[in-house]
């Protein structure tokens, strides 16, 4: 009489996970987002990403020509995510324009708190590493800021049309000012392990809109 016996688990390496090329590339990028946002680009080795994903190093170069190529793909993915977030908060039709901006900053503060203020803005982090990055990165960061500024500018202009803020302010300049100051507030929030710098900056920026 035969009995059904369950084979004991084999020791050694875990079985390979079957993924499509697109899934593996997307997973590498998403893992890169998490890691680079916390540790930065220069301090993160490819081996760290590959270990988290479970992809051999040889396969990495099937998806990306180099670490720089990988980094640019991560920046693009982060920019797409961030623009979607800005659109979600700053284009809410039933919410007053300034409240939209407040909702965005509160969401960002909650996101930082969720990860114990270890993660910040990837674009802002890379901005701190400019001396070690190729020119392609610099161009990509500038383009990201310009796109983000456009969304804030539209929000400010909408508030002006509804006479919610001063008509004398330059919406384009104020949107650029917002991101210059916001990145500094994010860095201070990481340093202090507190969302207070983000809330303080938001309050002072809103006050500036009424001058």
Task: Please provide a written account of the structure.
The radius of gyration is 22 Å and the shape is elongated. Residues 1-5 and 12-18 have low confidence and may be disordered. The chain has helices spanning 21-39, 46-53, 57-63, 67-90, 97-114, 122-127, 135-161, 171-192, 196-208. It is built from nine helices and no strands. The chain starts with 20 loop residues before the first helix and ends with a helix. Helix 1 packs across helix 2 (46-53), helix 4 runs parallel beside helix 7 (135-161) and helix 8 runs antiparallel to helix 9 (196-208). With 211 residues, it is mainly α. The protein has a domain at 68-208: Tetracycline Repressor, domain 2 (Orthogonal Bundle), CATH 1.10.357.10. 68% of the residues lie in helices and 0% in strands.
- What is the name of the CATH superfamily of the domain at 68-208? Tetracycline Repressor, domain 2
Would you tell me the overall average pLDDT? 90
Cα Rg: 22 Å
Distance between the termini: 90 Å
Strand percentage lies at: under 5%
Q: Identify the overall geometry.
A: elongated
What is the assembly state of the chains in this entry?
single chain
Q: What is the CATH architecture assignment of the domain at 68-208?
A: Orthogonal Bundle
Helix content: 55-70%
Put simply, the count of helices is: 9
How many strands in all? 0
* Main sheet specs: none
Write down the secondary-structure element order.
Answer: HHHHHHHHH
CATH topology of the domain at 68-208: Tetracycline Repressor, domain 2
Tell me, what is the CATH class of the domain at 68-208? Mainly Alpha
